[in-house]
Amino acid sequence: MGRVRHAVTTLYPVAVIVLSDRAHSGERPDACIPVVRDALLGNPLAIDDERVLPDDPAALQAALIELCEGPTRLVLTSGGTGLGPRDKTPQATQAVLDYEVPGIAEAMRAASMKHTRGAMLSRAVAGVRNRSLIVNLPGSPKAVRETLDAIAGALPHALELLAGDATDRHPTGCHEV
Predict the structure, then answer these.
(1) Residues 6+ positions from 88 with CB-CB distance below 8 Å
(2) DSSP secondary structure letters along 11-27
(3) 24 C-beta neighbours (distance < 10 Å), count
(4) 6 vs 55: CA distance, rounded Å
(5) Is there a domain that residue 27 lies in?
(6) Residue 33 belongs to a domain with what CATH number?
(7) How crowded is the C-beta side of 103, counted as CA atoms within 13 Å?
(8) Most buried residue, 43, 67, 95, 165, by most Cβ within 10 Å?
(9) Could you list the residue range(s) of the whole structural domain that residue 156 is in?
(10) How far apart are CA 117 and CA 26, in angstroms?
(11) Chain segment 21-34, per-residue pLDDT in tens
């Protein structure tokens, strides 16, 4: 007997934050937001907030707190997840999380490792603040696409669970007591 999946009718509000000093200053255009838009097509996710911020942990923390206090249910950040001296996105994100969801970042790294060994250098994190899911994506359009392709299918269910609209059922039918 197959699993019965119910159609999701809720559109979850999504914010995309790009962290880039050069894109923020206008030195170069951002190329990641269009990739995020395209990768989320067909999912019950509606991007309603797009921001380009400098690589500034305090600015990112303020934006994450603001967004997670409002209607936004998913915040996708892009950039600042590497080993460079200005790459502070994971630390800024961890500082505002209620708890981490490590499986999301693990899935992204595993998917990216199929394309580049550099994926093992990613420090991206994912977690929850106030029933909103925050996910750090890489800063290159190609890597954004690869990582979102790996996790996009699981995001609606995660948001249903956070909203209390679904139950987390184990495939075996076993539940923790």
Answers:
(1) 55, 57, 60, 80
(2) PEEEEEEEE-HHHHHTS
(3) 18
(4) 40
(5) yes
(6) 3.40.980.10
(7) 4
(8) 67
(9) 12-163
(10) 31
(11) 999 999 999 999 99
Is it the case that residue 145 has pLDDT exceeding 70?
yes
- pLDDT tens per residue across span 88-126: 999 999 999 999 999 999 999 999 999 999 999 999 999
Q: Read off the pLDDT band of 10 (50, 70, 90).
A: confident
DSSP character at residue 7: P
Model pTM? 0.89
Dihedral, CA of residue 129, residue 89, residue 60 and residue 11, to nearest 10: -50
Q: Break the chain down into helix, strand, coil percent, rounded to 5.
A: 40, 20, 40
Task: Decide if 172 is inside a domain.
Answer: no
Share of the chain above pLDDT 90, in %: 87
Question: How many domains, the chain?
Answer: 1
Give the pLDDT of residue 30: 96
Place of tokens 């420090």: 123
For residues 126 and 107, the answer to whether their CB atoms sit within 8 Å is no
Domain assignment of residue 174, yes or no: no
135 part of a folded domain? yes
Of 24, 13, 33, 114, nearest to 78 (Cα)?
33
